[in-house]
Amino acid sequence: MKIFHLPDLGEGLPDAEIREWYIKEGDEVKVDQPIVAMETAKAVVDVPAPRSGKIIKLYGKAGEVINTGAPLVEFSDGDAPVAKSTVVGNLQVGNTVIQESATGIKPTATAATGIKAIPAVRALAKKLNVDLNQVTPTGPNKQITVADVENAAKHPAVHSPENMTGEPLRGVRRAMAITMAQSHSEVVPVLLVDDADIHAWPTGTDVTGRMLRALIAGCEAEPSLNAHYNGKAMAINLQKEVHIGLAMDAPEGLFVPVIKNANQLTPTEWRNKINLFKEQVKARTVPQDDLKGASIVLSNVGTFAGKYASPIIVPPTVAIVATGRIREEVVAHHGKIEIHRIMPISLSFDHRAVTGGEAARFLAAVIKDLQAEK
Amino acid sequence: MAEISLIEAITQALAYEMQADKEVVVLGEDIGINGGVFRATVGLIEKFGPDRVLDTPLAESMIAGIAVGMAAQGLKPVAEIQFMGFTYPALDQILNHASRMRNRTRGRLTCPMVLRTPYGAGIHAPEHHSESTEAIFAHTPGLRVVIPSSPARAYGLLLAAIRDPDPVIFLEPSRLYRLVKQEVPDNGEALPLDQCFVLREGSDITLVSWGAMLHETLQAAKTLEAQGISAEVIDVATIKPLDMETILASVMKTGRCVIIHEAAKNCGVGAEIAAQISEKALLNLHAPVLRVTGYDTIVPYLKLEQLYLPNEARILNAVQQTLEFA
Fold first, then answer.
1. In this structure, which of A67, A292, B82, B304 has its CB flanked by the most CB atoms within 10 Å?
2. What is the ipTM of this complex?
3. Domain covering A173-371 in this structure, CATH number
């Protein structure tokens, strides 16, 4: 910019009078430096320099009137401005350089999918859980009809294992699938959820350690949850010691190493055991013996997300406790509103072996132990 | 090679073709001495003189009429209308004469004119300055409607439009005029008309758009990629006649399609594309074709125009609906 024109100093003011120049011809100015005081019909306004540079001409003396848009000062250098538009609007100006080719790209794969079906048929297949890959089309142009999908839903033979494609489950994942299916077909689970107010905990408290202790307290209050149940024999076997299975997530699947005789160990010993299990799970070297014999199971789902869960009971145990993500919550405390740390707790118990009353008393004992300061 | 904006690419194409072809003339309001309302014709009058760069009175019907006359008699006029909303007074000349010249004279005369106009909202402009009514022209037999979405396509498609023997309505997305830059070699190479450009390859869904909305569409495709959804993005570029072959091939591959345009939904060009997809690719469709468009109302003033314009969130919402359908 070579020449700076007087901007509109108010709401559509036609002109302004020069009150005082702060600079003279030949001065170097910095951007935003006040260069002149202009008196308008409303006020005296300092006009800042629009850019840095050397001023070579002042258009007017003190007391003279300058029209809005008329030259005010001239800089020694710079081009006459080229406006981005004349009158209308405000164009967004960017300097991002795009790299795409003018002609776009040639898509490599253009093959249409083999299945022919109208969206309604596809929606029906989704509703009936039918895989269209497994359906024989009988419609014109080999299209799958509503009847084809309904037929496939009625005769699940069309998605028999030999037709199914996919990677067979192995190892830990296979074990998980078998155990979960067994639980689903046998156990009669009931879910009970509640919260523990852990506001009293000192900072640095070992959450898992406190959970183990609380679980043991629960088992002492209600031994019927620390038990094995044989569904076929309809026999219950209360356990003397508390063997706590710890559900641990690993890329290969779910591992449940067991802290044997947890009720006889110190918190330090728990912690060492947990740390050892973590390493062994990572390295897949958990001894077989440490993976069985749990009398009750603890799962912490809240590391990732989730408040309450319905944890799955693994036979022959009859109870599993899941802790959710600890959160801050507004609570009523002694008639006042306070913000406390709250741990959500979900207990699943096998109603074949445990009564609702027993489970509730167990949970109450767990919560009571958790809410203690130490 | 310089990186230039879309508006500079327009200027570059005009200058190239005026240099290469003496029959090319430009005309419009304030396009000569002033350089045009958006500076599309800056410097042309100095280079090519007032005989080929004509400042006209404020009379759009006359501008279009002069262009029709010039074109019928062998010149190649490129007329500028300052804003799309100002093309309406010129519709009589465009619809009643330019589009019919070849048909009316049974091929004796053609009408090799280009009518350039900025279009679309998002530039904080008053009424009539934010229109996106390309469907009016796309609906008219005998017209070709071309919309660039990048500096390089603006250059290549404008050259093609000028060289085309029939009338071309060339709509320039004003929001993109200075938004991004691109290397555009000034080599006089035209891009093909009547052809879509695939900007991004994908397998889960096809996103079809044109003009300024491609900006948001490409952004949405990026977001989808981060979510593990692979979107193919097509720039229609010539909205009349439509290159349905490219669009259909893509939709038959992905099975899902969302069309994004700035114009109002009712009878927009998106409706035509959706109809043709359902006619020709119904059996490959997993879900109804959805449209994300402007609303069926006058484009609002600057305070509300961002609410009118389709944005990334609206595109993502439609994509999700489409993916969840079946």
1. B82
2. 0.79
3. 3.30.559.10
